[in-house]
Amino acid sequence: MKLGGECCIRNHVQSLFGGMRWRGVFSFEVRGGGLGKRFERMNVDKLAPIAIFAYNRLRHLEKTAESLKANCLAGQSELLIYSDGPKNQEDEMRVQEVRDYLKTLSGFKMITIVERERHLGLANSIIAGVTSTIGNYGKVIVVEDDLVSSKSFLSYMNEALECYKDQKKVFSITGYNYPLKIPQHYKHGVYLFYRCSSWGWATWVDRWIKVDWGVSDFSKFLRDKARQKLFNRGGEDLTPMLISQMSGGIDSWAIRWCYAHYSNNAYCLYPTISMIQNIGLDASGTHCAGSTDKFRVKIDNGEICDITFPQDLEIDEDIIQELRKMFRISIGKRILEKLKRLINKIVRNG
Q1: Among candidate residues 190, 256, 249, 191, the one with its CA nearest the CA of residue 221
Q2: Contacts of residue 230, Cβ cutoff 8 Å, sequence gap at least 6
Q3: Count of the separate structural domains present in the chain
Q4: Concatenated DSSP letters for 172-192?
Q5: Domain containing 88 — which CATH number?
Q6: More confident call, 50 vs 296
Q7: Among 9-13, 29-33, 166-170, where is mean pLDDT lowest?
Q8: Distances (CA, A) of 199 to 40, 97, 164, 175, 296
Q9: Which residues in 107-146 are b (16+ Cβ under 10 Å) and which e?
Q10: Is the pLDDT of residue 283 over 70?
């Protein structure tokens, strides 16, 4: 699949300022031999709001907030923080510590804190918070409380949101990139993948409202191996995760968001250099089963080379094959998953 045209830095700035001369809008800095770019000023009405989802991990949240504050667009961006309510009495003190810290936060154009009285859980919290925010602003940048961002993150996300807003096949944008080696022949600073990322991402309201959170066609999908094969272009683990979600084994908004990309024949846009590091893969999170370094990456330090956003971007099969290797399921695990489904079917049928 191929998108059309090209959106370069100059075109992007002209669109933001309605055809104004672009001189002075950007400042370019040479750091360590690389050409880094940043916004000196930007039409603030065009900036996407940032939504942070927090629970009970104060130390992780502090690092998340401080890294966002270091972005040059932080002071011009509105920040909304959704603080989930405690799951039990044991979590009450930790949730309160998070909320006390949030009241001291500064460095953004405006900060809105939404304190949930009851525990929604991550999936319901994100679905409700994103739906509310995107309904008011038309777009949103989403960050969970265990993600450290580079200084270029907000600039990249806002530029990409502007450049691809009319490219309906781009369903979402992420600031994370997997630890993979980009092929030498690939010259772009961004690429498309069938699988979306929940680690520092953004989207638009017209994409978000297309999500069927109940996955009403799941029974048809389950009987159709061809559809499952297409869905699994983003990784062999996608269909098993969706089955687990629909059978009550997990509670994931992200797998349903991935399914919406597949259902709409759409993609997620990734940078070739990661601007996000997940610091929550240390077994501290509710949905983190154990500590792992599998997805640890070196993030951009503000020295990103000049990125263009080509609108004739195509899927690169070499990149796709490298990514699919990361989500390949072993034969033993496949057998185990089939046994689980068989047992669940026997239990349901009595």
Answers
A1: 256
A2: 262
A3: 1
A4: EEES---S-PPPTT---SEEE
A5: 3.90.550.10
A6: 50
A7: 29-33
A8: 26, 24, 19, 7, 12
A9: ebeebeebebeeebbbbebbbebbbebbeebebbbbbbbb
A10: no
Q: Which of 61, 60, 64 is nearest to 74 (CA)?
A: 64
pLDDT of 25 higher than 70: no
pLDDT at 321: 93
According to DSSP H, which parts of the chain are helical?
9-16, 58-69, 89-102, 122-137, 153-163, 205-208, 218-223, 225-231, 238-246, 253-263, 317-326, 331-348
- CA distance linking residue 210 with residue 41, whole number of Å: 33
How far apart, in Å, are the Cα atoms of 63 and each of 17, 144, 149, 150, 278? 33, 11, 9, 11, 11
- The amino acid at residue 313 is L
61 part of a folded domain: yes
Q: Is residue 59 part of a domain?
A: yes
Q: Coil, strand, or helix at residue 205?
A: helix
Instruction: Residue 176: give the domain boundaries.
Output: 6-210+264-315
| Residue 57: both structure tokens together | 């991990």
Please report the sign of the dihedral spanned by the C-alpha atoms of residue 131, residue 135, residue 136, residue 141: positive
Question: What pTM, to 2 d.p., does this model score?
Answer: 0.83
Residue 228 counted as domain residue? no
* CB of 167 closer than 8 Å to CB of 311: yes
Angstrom CA distances, 201 to 140, 182, 313, stand at: 8, 21, 19
> Is 337 domain-assigned?
no
One DSSP character per residue, 325-348 reads HHTPPPHHHHHHHHHHHHHHHHHH
- Contacts of residue 76, Cβ cutoff 8 Å, sequence gap at least 6: 41, 42, 44, 47, 109
Distance in angstroms (rounded) separating the CA atoms of residues 264 and 261: 5
In which residue are the tokens 């669109």 written? 15
List phi, psi (to 5°) of 220.
-70, -40
- Cβ atoms of 313 and 191 within 8 Å: the answer is yes
